[in-house]
Fold EamA domain-containing protein.
Amino acid sequence: MTPETPTEAIAPVLSKAAPDAADYGAAADPVKDVRESSTPSSEAEAEAVAAGLSQLEARDVHWYSYLLTVDFWAVIAVGQILSLCITATNTFTSFLSSVHTIIPAFQTLFNYALLVLIWLPVTWHQHGFRRWGEIVLRDGWKYFILSFLDVEGNYFTVLGYDYTTILSAQLINFWSIVCVVTVSFLLLRVRYRLLQLAGILICCGGMGVLLASDHITGANGGDAPDALKGDLFALLGATLYGLSNVFEEWFVSKRPVYEVLSFLGLFGVCINGVQAAIFDRDSFQGATWNGQVAGWLVGYTLCLCLFYSLAPLILRMGSAAVFDINLLTANFWGVIIGTRVFGYTVHWMYPIAFVLIICGLVIYFLAGSILGDSKKPWLGDNQKDGVAGIGTAKLKALNEARRRGLAGGSAGGQV
């Protein structure tokens, strides 16, 4: 998603962000935070970022240059870890369903609670209680929207699987990639290259091969109880997923990860708790409760928490589109695990599909910038509105400037 020309424009709903987000998390002193944008150190940092970006973008690069960087392989590796996490959560959900414990909202509640326990204390430590309160009053509604999209995306996707076939639900999940590309283009002013669009289409083709093999082997879930209702639920879930992924990418490029995850968890607990109390009450009473079920819930929660904690890294180093593309391989890993757990057999088309998806990712980054998708067009010239966090183009520029003696300080950045 590397832009051909930088731009400071952004959609109105997003442009009402707080002042320079790079200052977030830099200090717990609210007075210092207010004044920091006008201090000489901020000006020196801006100059260092500009110098570092110039050095990075002036390099003599080839069409394959980004493929040789650590960032590219980190994107691939983190993407596959996320796919494995999703596969693990699906496996634990299958175990729970096998003993008639179908509580989609309630079982996800523990994940949001764990995010709060891990990341809220970090946020309080970095910002201080007063600063945190100011963020709640000013930007709490934005974080509420992010959490709402995420919670409802989870919920309606699960509902879709309950009413339609697995094959139909997976086909509809392609819509999330369409939403990501469309919303990024319209709201965030992202401009895709032809090779990037070709890479996305090849990845989708690989997923199509997976679905075709499922249909051939009869692993499409059988008859649908209510196909129309299930398809509509799946379509709504995919749309909400796409919107939440783009919104989260925007957030983590401007704010520290610990802040984003703490608010995502905090509002997620509230929204998901109310939803579980309303819709999972009857299922909760009829569910099976024993030590084994508790173990499955713990495994589900830990895997999902790891997924949420790593997702911001790929959203910073890559993009929401790269994030969704990587998750297409989850079906492949699901079959591999299923051969050991549920006795599945691997169809000969599966390895072909996996290779197609990985090749699509490689093509996506061909002839792109050495910074890949980490340079975000909505952060303005020299990424001035972005946070200097792990995986961001701003931190890479600062570290490059430091290595060349153009800026003081040691390499590194905030989370």
Remarks:
- Residues 1-40 have pLDDT under 50 and may be disordered.
